[in-house]
Amino acid sequence: MEVDSIPKTTATKGEELEHADLVIAILTELCPEEIAVVIGGLRGLSSSIRIVVALKDGTALLPQNNSANGEGGSNLAIIPWTALGLDMSGPPLPSISAGYQSIFAASLKLEAQACCVIASNLENETPHWVSRFIQPVLEPGFDLVAPHFARNKLEGLLNSAIVSPLCRSLYGSRIQNPMGPDLAISRRLFQHIVGADPNARLKNRRIHPLASLAPIAVCGNLKVCQVHLGARRYPPADWMNVSSLLVEVLGPLFLDMETNAACWQRVRRTVPVADLGEPVPPSATVGAIDVDRLLNSFQLGVRDLQEIWGMVLPPASLFELRKLARLRSEQFQMPDDLWVRLVYDFALAHHLRTINRDHLLRSMTPLYLGWVASHAREVANADAGSVEKRLGRLAIAFETGKSYLVSQWRWPDRFNP
Amino acid sequence: MWEQAKNALTQSTERFLTKFASILPGIVALIVAIVVSIVLAWILALLARRLLSSMRFDERMARWGISSATEWSPMNKPTDLVARGIAVLIVLMGVLIGVAAFDAELTTLLVRTIFGYVPNILGALLVLLVGNIIARFFSRSVLIGAVNMNFQYARLLSVGVKWLVIVLAVAMALEDLRIASGIVELAFGILFGGIVLTLAVAIGFNSKELLTKSLERDPKKDSTEAIEDPLRQL
Would you state the CATH architecture of domain A3-276? Predict the structure, then answer.
């Protein structure tokens, strides 16, 4: 991803953009009113900070009374996504991974002190939410700011089921959303990741621009915090097409486990990270999940994928899965320790290349759908607090099972019943 | 008369002994070649078995999905099959070298013909090996994809695709070996057509489910949402 030039026309007061303190990429589609809210919030930051904001159409989307050179005093320049080198010929929204790579390259070129990617929409946007999110990396202290969303019980389930508890047990930091997708990053951290040549370094070191951020920050003893942002608006989940999500998310996560093996094997306990801002209760809207359809997928997987799972899972787990598949819909519940073992065994198989990695991750889909069905049934009538406690218990199960992962990682030939 | 008979017998014995003496080195060379090749085959088979065992060849073969050989011969592990294959090859080469030592025109021709056929055999083996690997890969891809799409006949589809590729590979191998090409073509056409028909029937049954699912989808949902970045759902 090359950023050759940041256009002069969008620069503040007609100057060429050669330097910025903060680079922000908003990789989501916002209406002019929402943009006004974000820009208004950014003006609240110190006027001595030069800020570059990348939006879909640059200044074209700005409301008439909100120019980039407003009298607010902050040095704010607005550029289109294409100026960051993002390919806009495909889907309407750019890829988040490409967005991160571009913003790293732009931040390096502009010698920015920090950068930030906003890729999600909040349910209730307040004028200062973006500035509150960025503030911790601008003022000396934090290197990575992750979002802390008010969780709706049936949304963001891949994060709740695998990403968050796995990262917590591996790296010892209790970050709710280690893969953002919104993250604010200090110069120290993005320099640590991209070095001098962003393209070469990311390719050679197999660093995923999104999945590797939190592990690198924690393993590098950099300071991490999370900011309460309220509830997030998720795109509608397509439960019949989850496999590509698993490949996109778990692939980089499992690869990172290889890269940081020396780091996570030393971690013995988990610690909370600094929580900034006021917690916001989740909205009352609760989505619906067709549990029976998910259970059908799980049962079909147990019936037809035994041959593939047999290469990945120990006999005891296969036996448990067969027992689960025979249960009636209302009795179905996947135990935490079984789910944790399944995730760890898939991570081990990914590491050992037991089968083709794409096949491996896609074959996990029925198991994940089984977990979703079990979770949806369990929290159907639970309030937000109970859901948080339930996910807390799952995270502890991941921590408890870590010794199994470490042992099998070090001695894969050890007897595993 | 007795003298003539004695001369004839002497000449016949001389001819036999001369002939025998002329082929004796060839026989000795054949025996030596066979004995040496058996010893060499035994040593190489032993080395191959140890090397493959240290490389965990059996596990790797299972991991790569090449277990057809063991399916056909379940008593033998892939390591044993390879070791025995090497031994048989060495002994065969010893026999050919020994036969060639007679220096007879016929044996030279035989040896030349057999050695000329070796590239075809190796080519056929390579085609079978690659075909097997591709068949396994496609079969797994189809199985996982079909299960994730909730197809009830996922296994049938997967087995169909696997045999489609294997039948194609076997037909190509037999063509390479120049064995009954007319029958092979006919049999291949019948088998290939049969498998394609079976797959078409299986897809036909599944397409009903697929159609139902696509009709159940929210019509207001923009088609572009389907290709958006999966990370946005995280």
Answer: Alpha-Beta Complex (3.90)
